[in-house]
């Protein structure tokens, strides 16, 4: 019987099909993985990754003003306990152990995903609080395609980006360019001055530009070769804190990332080999005193995956890393060799039950990290034509090896440091509601408990100089709730996302000094929430982002704090169809309510601002 010929087809609904591509989705049963929607990424393409994640996820970012570094914190951890991967390889700085998200433009990526919670078994060192997964853009069509975007905005902001795409036969190529500059000469209230006078921000200008080049070549039916390159440059004036004497401090960051990836399918499964070279250069000029760091990273990742009858999949591999760093703070050139072996198993005993079991063992010169396992499950215990209910759970380990600065900084490096070790337990519920083609509602609630031991922190020793020590054991627990809705009302399409996190991150033990046991860690808000919404009709699109950040303590003793704040951003776009091409006009306003706020103490953030952009699309 052809059901399509029946008068009422709404009662016949196809089952949900899940398509997996990245290890975070395949081998992380029980974990929470979120992907940023493509419409938002295209509208804010000239912005940084930090701006996008702040607007669409309840993750807390610390920014040292508009021109300073911007770092992320997951589940009450710090910036160095977040892994950032580009096409599967870690790009976090081996000297600092973190990534500056303000130097990562959205226009460089094809998709952006976020994995919450420990992921040491799948992503290696540093994935204690979570991981951010970035992938290069792809082009799956024939012929030429292009996009060009230009924008101008408040406080001397000008930006432009463009991409050219080409596909023919077995070859696809994508070239991307971007440029941004901003004077950041806004006015703000100086909280340190008498009666809080209004002053104009100085020494906060920014200039950034970069290039991406991606090639994908289907060598044969079973073999594919990909080449990825990514260059970024940032020249920033270092914004002084309120009340500080005027300075001319300046920082330049230059990053080159090259990668070759080979995939081959055979009766033994899929073989994948990736080889990469990264160069990270930093030049810091502080009132005439110059500091430089030049770091070379070499990585090789080899994996073998085998899938049998859509019931189970096994992936095993080895990851090799070599770091070589020349730094003014070192006695000479510092180097480090690391390796890890891993095995990832996904098993679906039934269509409703999904299991994963992962294990990684790292080998590091001078250190002995413990094995990091992960065990998770997803069980869809209720499913009808409209509702799907699932319960999930995950238990996982994680670790972080001390950075090169921790080990080799002249007069402070500590060779006796232990790797940080973390354990996490989480569980949650997932609900999916489908009402034909009119409404899709997805809701998720997660609770977690995490313990991180041998937490590394720089502190003054008895004679005064600062040095890194395994200072703390930290206990973090919390709740994460999210809802995503998509609806169609007539010719209008509506989408909304809501996210909330409650985070308690406290010192459980202090190994040196009296410490502040039972106190919330610095710059960890207990409450964080975001609301994003968009509506499209007849070529018009309205987007809004509401962001709430709760009170944050600026000391581990909870004696000083920053007030909570709410930010509202709005964008209105109009798409004009020009034959086969399209022109998109967008007017954006950031901080619509003109809120006064800080993410780091005494570093001013901009008031209400406006941006107008034009985007020309050749499909």
Concise synopsis of the structure shown:
The chain is mostly beta strands. The chain has 5 helices and 33 strands.
Please tag this protein with its features.
22-stranded antiparallel barrel, Maltoporin, Chain A, 5-stranded mixed sheet, single chain, 33 strands, mainly beta, 619 residues, 4% helix, disordered N terminus
Q: Count every helix, treating DSSP H or I runs of 4 or more residues as helices.
A: 5
**Percent range for helical residues?**
under 10%
Give the terminus-to-terminus CA distance.
40 Å
General shape: globular
Q: Mind telling me the C-alpha Rg? A: 25 Å
Structural class based on helices, strands and sheet pairing: mainly beta
The major sheet is characterized as:
22 strands, antiparallel, barrel
**Any idea what the CATH superfamily is called?**
TonB-dependent receptor, beta-barrel domain
Q: Which percent band covers the strand fraction?
A: over 45%
Number of strands: 33
Describe the structure.
- The chain has 5 helices and 33 strands.
- The longest helix has 8 residues.
- The N terminus is likely disordered.
- The strands form 5 sheets. It has a 22-stranded antiparallel barrel. A 5-stranded mixed β-sheet has the order 1-6-7-4-5, with no helix packed on it. A two-stranded antiparallel ribbon has the order 2-3.
- The chain is globular, with a radius of gyration of 25 Å.
- The chain has one domain: TonB-dependent receptor, beta-barrel domain (Maltoporin, Chain A, Beta Barrel).
- It is mostly beta strands.
């Amino acid at each position: 019987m052809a059901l399509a010929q029946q008068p009422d087809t709404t009662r016949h609904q196809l089952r949900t099909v899940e398509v997996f591509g990245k290890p975070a989705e395949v081998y992380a049963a029980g974990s929470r993985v979120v992907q940023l929607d493509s419409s938002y990424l295209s509208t804010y393409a000239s912005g940084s990754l930090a701006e996008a994640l702040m607007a669409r996820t309840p993750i807390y970012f610390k920014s040292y003003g508009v021109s300073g570094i911007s770092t992320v914190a997951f589940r009450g951890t710090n910036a160095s306990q977040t892994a950032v991967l580009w096409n599967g390889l870690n790009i976090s700085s081996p000297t600092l152990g973190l990534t500056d998200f303000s130097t990562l433009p959205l226009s460089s990526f094809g998709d952006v995903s976020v994995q919450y919670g420990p992921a040491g078994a799948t992503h290696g060192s540093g994935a204690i609080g979570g991981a951010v997964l970035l992938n290069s853009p792809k082009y799956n069509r024939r012929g030429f395609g292009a996009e060009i975007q230009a924008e101008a905005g408040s406080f001397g902001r000008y930006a432009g980006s463009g991409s050219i795409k080409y596909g023919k036969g077995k070859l696809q190529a994508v070239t991307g360019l971007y440029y941004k500059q901003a004077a950041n000469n806004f006015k703000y209230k100086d909280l340190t001055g008498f009666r809080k006078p209004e002053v104009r921000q100085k020494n906060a200008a920014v200039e950034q530009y970069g290039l991406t080049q991606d090639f994908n070549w289907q060598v044969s039916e079973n073999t594919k070769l990909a080449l990825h390159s990514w260059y970024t440059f940032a020249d920033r004036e270092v914004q002084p804190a309120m009340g500080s004497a005027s300075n001319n401090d300046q920082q330049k960051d230059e990053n080159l990332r090259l990668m070759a990836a080979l995939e081959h399918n055979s009766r033994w499964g899929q073989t994948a080999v990736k080889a990469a070279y990264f160069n990270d250069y930093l030049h810091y000029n502080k009132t005439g005193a110059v500091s430089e760091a030049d770091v070379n990273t070499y990585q090789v990742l080899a994996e073998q995956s085998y899938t049998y009858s859509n019931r189970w999949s096994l992936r095993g591999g080895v990851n090799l890393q070599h770091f070589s760093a020349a730094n003014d703070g070192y006695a000479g050139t510092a180097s480090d060799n690391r390796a890890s072996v891993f095995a990832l198993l996904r098993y679906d005993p039934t269509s409703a039950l999904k299991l994963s079991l992962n294990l990684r063992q790292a080998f590091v010169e001078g250190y002995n990290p413990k094995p990091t396992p992960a065990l998770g499950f997803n069980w869809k215990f209720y499913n009808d034509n409209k509702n799907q209910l699932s319960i999930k759970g995950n238990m996982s380990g994680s670790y972080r090896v001390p950075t090169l600065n921790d080990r080799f900084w002249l007069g402070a490096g500590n060779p006796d440091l232990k790797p940080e070790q973390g354990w996490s337990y989480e569980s949650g519920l997932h609900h999916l509601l489908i009402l034909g083609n009119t409404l899709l509602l997805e809701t998720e609630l997660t609770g977690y408990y995490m313990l991180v031991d041998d937490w590394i922190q720089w502190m003054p020793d008895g004679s005064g100089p600062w040095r890194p020590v395994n200072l703390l054991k930290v206990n973090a627990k919390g709740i994460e709730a999210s809802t995503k809705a998509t609806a169609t009302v007539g010719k209008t399409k509506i989408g909304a996302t809501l996210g909330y996190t409650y985070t308690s991150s406290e010192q459980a033990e202090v190994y040196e000094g009296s410490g502040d046991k039972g106190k919330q860690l610095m710059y960890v808000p207990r409450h964080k929430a975001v609301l994003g919404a968009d509506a499209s009709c007849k070529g018009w699109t309205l987007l809004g982002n509401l962001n709430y950040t709760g009170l944050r303590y600026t000391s581990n003793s909870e004696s000083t704090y920053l007030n909570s704040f709410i930010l509202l951003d709005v964008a209105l776009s109009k798409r004009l169809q020009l034959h086969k091409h399209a022109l998109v006009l967008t007017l954006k306003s950031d901080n619509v309510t003109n809120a006064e706020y800080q993410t780091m103490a005494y570093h001013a953030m901009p008031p209400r601002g406006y941006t107008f952009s034009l985007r020309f699309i050749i499909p």
